[in-house]
Amino acid sequence: MDSVFQALASAPRRKILAYLSSTDLTAGEIAERFDMSKPSISKHLSVLEAAGLIKGTKKGQFVTYSLISENITNVLNGFVQDVCPVSRPLKKESKEIAEGK
Predict the structure, then answer these.
(1) What's the pTM?
(2) What is the C-alpha to C-alpha distance for residues 42 and 40, in angstroms, rounded to an integer?
(3) Looking at domain 1-99, does it have CATH number 1.10.10.10?
């Protein structure tokens, strides 16, 4: 449980969860949305994965990340994101990405 709270304590990690709310994204697609190095994004993804909030699936040379929707923390986080003024536009962008795929 501590790893979940540690994962959710970071604004970039909460934003990553918002981006993954409606679609799966590769590490590169996630990194494009942040002004930080790819190793930093990788570290954030590792923390989220270790907490059981996301899973990475290797497809060729890419790793695609998705939410583990069965995790109650993700259900609660999704609810909070619907009312959060920071996450709401990120969830909207996630839906638009999903529709474009």
Answers:
(1) 0.74
(2) 5
(3) yes
